[in-house]
Automatic annotation (TrEMBL):
It is found in: Nucleus; Chromosome, Telomere. Its EC number is 2.7.7.49. Residues 590-926 form the Reverse transcriptase domain. It is an enzyme of class 2 (transferase). PANTHER family: TELOMERASE REVERSE TRANSCRIPTASE (PTHR12066:SF0). GO terms for molecular function: metal ion binding; telomerase activity; telomerase RNA binding; telomeric DNA binding. It catalyses: DNA(n) + a 2'-deoxyribonucleoside 5'-triphosphate = DNA(n+1) + diphosphate. This is Telomerase reverse transcriptase. Keywords: Chromosome, Magnesium, Metal-binding, Nucleotidyltransferase, Nucleus, RNA-directed DNA polymerase, Telomere, Transferase.
Length: 1060
């Protein structure tokens, strides 16, 4: 009979550890945040990783027993080091160990020792003995040596380091270079993660691993991501080593191994550790999304009379090719339609250069230079076999049909001039929305043009061809009807198309009726996918944008409106002309060139946003303009990107001196804290039983009317420190991390990223880990990543940047340039802050009579709300604001003012609500009796919920519906609506009921937009509702206020009340 093993035998734990270390990707550390498992196939603790990397049984036993209280190695164990082994997480990709790694390591170590230390490394046996601090330095040096593109490897340990010298590879940190050059202001700070790893806590790592540890530890530092836990919050981590998590590609079935995101300058991803060749990027049909953004806001092509030209743009290949008599026209067209067959840049096998395009896929409207370079290596008549014969004939027919197509006549037939219709049936209204062409008319026009230009045999012959053509036309109709942020995947267009019987896809020498091989089928599928991509991306998109001005509106939000270019020209010209005479002055082109050469900020573009009865100007300061640099077209920084340092500095001053903001609020959520404090103050005084007088006023065109000189004087006094340091970091978490359930269907988490910046006074040192610790207190399952790009800015530099932005803001309207003479730029990231600081000064000087215990003043940008127990004070406030304050450029919109008591200004009554009512303010309603907060029901009923939705039509529709539902819920979960310390229970129950009703309405509209095959199943809908209640209850109980708040949050609703 076999003897039973003693339960205390340590060999059992060793075997279990070994087995677990060999299990591979499925043996992820269970406490790791879900976000890490989205980027690494394996996530283990540091101890588990070392066990997996080591082959010696003796070493495995030593690593396992270290700090466990058993074995000789545990007697002198450092508690801090033991904690590192069991809490530090290591994310890595499975890589085959190469035999040449050791040889390369020893050779490079010899070079490193000679160049950096000036001496040879001491050897003990086959490998040199190094301290862990020296291993860290060597790992950084080797990363720079292997890096071939860019100024610095995208690795956490390389932040703050750079190349020095010309012929040799050297690195230096801030301390070393300061001693030699003294250029302190222009050098980066020390890398705190390097300092951490060089500290005493990590020094014992080489001795624990034993002989041969250096190579294992170098690979750990270079090829793995290491994350340490943060004390605040729950399950939050800080990355201290490895490639920046933000630079990695997420794992999925098309990319199961991960790796670096593709570099814009190359057409390959960085290889995984242990692989020497760079794999070629391949976008599948499921990952290729048509870039619909290119149809938005496009200017028309004009003829000699200055009228819009209809049809395809002048620069389109079908228009250019007929004007060039020397070209082999068919071959040239084939290179545009089937670039992959000629080895040209294409959407399937190449990536986008992020330095010259902000879009996920390249614009192939002009590719003449690329074709010219490719032709040098090709024979003049070198068509791939499959493109000869029938295919070439069909493309020739396509060219001929384009030349005969009457684009203008078709446009007039399907989309008649809406101005002519409006004038013939005018009812005296001024509704701009009525002048837009309906999406069904636009779709009919596009389908008609494509039917006339593209030969029918491209889709197949006979009945099968008709079925394929009908499917393509249906997808064109869907493309036109999609919302602003919705798009179409190439897979959806290609799905259900029968390509086996399309004759032009066959090889020229193939007999009809032959059995179709898998390789032949895949080749045909690839070629037909190229045709479909050309149809949508290079024909349909320019067709829409050259005939229609496509824009969203302030009413329908995400729903797109299509205006014929001639109609939009008649609408926009008077509005643009008015802008040029009121708040802008025209600047000559020569003056613009001279001014821009001396400016660090570029120009913005003005576009007009349709409203119900007019057009509102929008200045686009997020746009990145292509400029030539070293003979190449590259994307320059946007105006808002250049202003980021000033934005962070203003935010710092806001945090340092909040009193300078007066009654400013940066979101409506801040209103709840102030209302609760005011009510508590009233209850503790003799004013508790007095009625409350409400007065709301709205400033007219606040950004456009702020005087510039007083604002700049205010900024000069506001910015106090002599120098600032700007840092950047990223926060990542997995959406749906708490949605995992044993029930089916399984919901896969999705990565969510936030990019943040922060300013601090240069003299005040703060490590990123300290800042991450503070941020983590309100986070759950979040990973914090320190990003490179730390900059130092002087006070004079920040003031000069803001002065240039305010006084020399140049915008382009049409083909002319204008300088803004009054107000501050709209669309700027600093505009709201500047407005708040300026109006806070107005409050301190003009509205000082409100600073008493009887009144509360709230202001969200330009919306003022006064609540007072003194009727005279409320009356005086309304009169002062309505009469205007010219020195501050303030003028109110009298028709939007509201009060709950009788008041007149210069003999005119101000719009009044009942004394006891829910007073509307910024989308919420405040009870004038007890200050309870609810949503503004009138405004809610006016919102078009369906038009505000963005439906994800891509793969995994059920999972997308599940995630979207929870996002909809979270948008409605505001602390001020759920807190029972401020609101009574009945109000909170009503708020929760409306919250669920709104979510249900949005879900209904979302499902209605999906096709029948993509609608979620009944089981998934029931599961979503059940999980929604559970998550809503959990969020209501877990919500917390910021540390600066003196309001203690509590929600007294039970789970039964929530479910009801």
């Amino acid at each position: 009979m076999k003897r039973k093993r003693d339960s205390k035998d340590t060999s059992d734990s060793i075997k279990r550890t070994k087995a677990s270390a060999q299990q591979g990707p499925d043996h992820d550390h269970q406490s790791a945040p879900s976000i890490l498992r989205l980027y690494y196939p394996q996530v283990l603790t540091l101890r588990e990783y070392l066990l997996q990397a080591t082959t010696s049984k003796h070493k495995k036993r030593r690593i396992t027993n270290y700090g466990s209280g058993t074995g000789s190695s545990s007697q002198d164990a450092d508690a801090g080091f033991v904690n590192l082994l069991d809490t530090v997480l290591v994310g890595f990709h499975t890589a085959k160990k190469e035999e040449s790694d050791l040889v390369d390591y020893q050779n490079e170590l010899s070079i490193f020792s000679t160049q950096v230390t000036g001496s040879e490394a001491k050897s003990s046996g086959s490998q040199p003995v190094l301290l862990f601090a020296e291993i860290v330095e060597f790992a950084i040096w080797q990363l720079f040596r292997k890096h071939t593109s860019g100024h610095r490897p995208p690795h956490v340990l390389c932040h703050g380091y750079w190349h020095t010298g010309l012929g040799e590879v050297k690195i230096a940190d801030r301390e070393k270079v300061e001693n030699n050059h003294g250029a302190e202001a222009t050098l980066p700070d020390r890398n705190e993660h390097v300092d951490r790893l060089k500290g005493e806590a990590w020094a014992a790592l080489p001795s624990l691993v034993g002989a041969g540890s250096a190579l294992i530890l170098v690979q750990l530092l270079q090829n793995c991501g290491m994350f340490i836990p943060l004390d605040g919050g729950k399950n939050n981590y800080l990355q201290i080593s490895g490639t920046d998590l933000s630079e990695l590609r997420s794992l999925d079935k098309h990319n199961p191994t991960g790796g670096l995101k593709p570099n814009g300058s190359t057409n390959a991803v960085v290889p995984l550790p242990g692989k020497n060749k760079r794999p070629q990027i391949k976008n599948t049909l499921n990952t290729i999304r048509f870039v619909r953004h290119r149809i938005l806001y496009r200017k028309p092509d004009l003829n000699a009379k200055g009228e819009p030209y209809f049809g395809l743009p002048h620069i389109h290949i079908l228009n250019r090719i007929r004007r060039d008599e020397e070209l082999d026209k068919n071959a040239h067209m084939l290179k545009y339609i089937f670039p992959r067959q000629f080895g040209l840049h294409n959407v399937f096998t190449n990536d986008v250069d992020t330095k010259n395009s902000a879009q996920p896929f390249k614009d192939y409207t002009l590719r003449e230079q690329e074709i010219k370079l490719a032709n040098k290596n090709l024979k003049q008549r070198s068509l791939p076999k499959r493109l000869r014969g029938k295919c070439e004939t069909l493309i020739n027919q396509l060219r001929m049909r384009h030349e005969r197509c009457a684009y203008s006549a078709l446009l007039q037939y399907y989309c008649p001039d809406s101005f002519a219709k409006e004038n013939s049936a005018s009812d005296g209204s001024d509704n701009i929305m009525g002048l837009a062409t309906s999406s069904s008319q636009v779709s009919a026009y596009c389908r008609s043009v494509i039917a006339k230009v593209f030969p029918g045999n491209l889709w197949g012959e006979g009945e099968l061809g008709a079925v394929n053509k009908a499917h393509v036309m249906h997808q064109i109709d869907r493309f036109v009807r999609l919302g602003r942020y919705e798009s179409l995947m190439l897979h959806e267009v290609a799905q259900n198309i029968k390509i086996s019987k399309i004759s032009w896809l066959r090889p020229p020498d193939e007999m009809e009726g032959c059995k179709l091989a898998a390789s032949d089928f895949n080749k045909r599928k690839d070629m037909f996918a190229e045709l479909l991509y050309y149809l949508f991306d290079s024909f349909l998109v320019p067709l829409i944008s050259s005939n229609f001005y496509v824009t969203e509106s302030s009413i329908y939000r995400n729903r797109l409106l299509y205006f014929r270019h001639d109609v939009w020209q008649k609408l926009s010209e008077p509005a643009l002309k008015s802008l040029g005479t009121t708040m802008f002055e025209e600047v000559g082109k020569s003056t613009v060139k001279k001014t821009l050469s001396n400016m660090s900020i570029g120009t913005g573009r003005v576009r007009l946003l349709p409203k119900e009865s007019g057009l509102r100007p929008i200045i686009n300061l997020k746009r990145r303009v292509q400029t030539k640099r070293n003979g190449r077209l590259v994307l320059s920084k946007s105006v808002n990107k250049i202003l980021e340092p000033a934005f962070h500095v203003l935010n710092l001053e806001k945090a340092i001196t909040p009193a300078k903001l007066g009654s400013s609020m940066f979101s409506s959520d801040e209103m709840y804290q102030r209302l609760h404090r005011f009510r508590t103050q009233l209850q503790q005084s003799e004013n508790a039983d007095k009625p409350l007088y409400f007065a709301k006023v709205d400033v007219e065109s606040c950004f456009d009317s702020i005087p510039q000189k007083p604002l700049l004087k205010l900024l000069n006094d506001l910015i106090s420190a002599e120098g600032y340091t700007i840092t950047r970091h990223a926060q990542a978490k997995a959406l749906g991390e708490c949605d995992q359930s044993k029930d089916q269907p399984k919901i896969v988490p999705k990565a969510s990223w936030k990019w943040k910046g922060k300013a601090r006074v240069t003299d005040q040192k703060e490590l990123f880990s300290e800042h991450a610790q503070k941020e983590a207190e309100a986070s759950l399952g979040t990973v914090f990543v320190d990003l490179e790009g730390k900059t130092h800015r002087s006070r004079a530099g920040i003031l000069a940047l803001l002065r240039e932005h305010v006084e020399r803001n140049i915008v382009q309207i049409g083909k002319k340039f204008y300088r803004q003479t009054t107000g501050i730029p709209q669309g700027s990231i600093v505009s709201s802050l500047l407005c708040n600081f300026f109006y806070a000064e107005l409050e301190s000087k003009v509205l000082a009579f409100l600073q008493d215990d009887e009144s509360l003043l709230l202001r969200l940008i330009d919306d003022f709300l006064l609540i007072s127990t003194n009727r005279d004070t409320a009356t005086r406030f309304v009169q002062v604001m309505h009469r205007g304050l010219p020195e501050y450029g303030l003028r109110v919109k009298e028709d939007k003012s509201k009060v709950n008591f009788d008041v007149q200004v210069d003999g005119r009554d101000v719009s009044r609500l009942p004394a006891a009512t829910n007073f509307p303010y910024c989308g919420n309603a405040i009870d004038t009796i007890n200050l309870n907060i609810t949503r503004d029901e009138i405004r809610r009923q006016q919102n078009n919920t369906a038009a505000a939705l963005t439906v994800d039509f891509s793969r995994s529709p059920g999972q997308n519906f599940y995630r979207k539902t929870f996002n909809m819920l979270k948008l409605h979960m505001h602390t001020m609506h759920l807190c029972t310390r401020h609101n009574n229970v009945e109000t909170v129950i009503a708020n929760v009921s409306r919250m669920f009703a709104d979510t249900a309405e949005r879900c209904f509209n979302y499902i209605r937009c999906l096709s029948q095959t993509k609608k979620p199943s009944t089981a998934l809908i029931i599961k979503t509702i059940d999980d929604l209640i559970h998550v809503a209850y959990g969020l209501m109980k877990r919500k917390r206020e910021k540390k600066s708040s003196d309001v203690e949050y509590a929600c007294a609703l039970s789970k039964a009340q929530t479910r009801w």
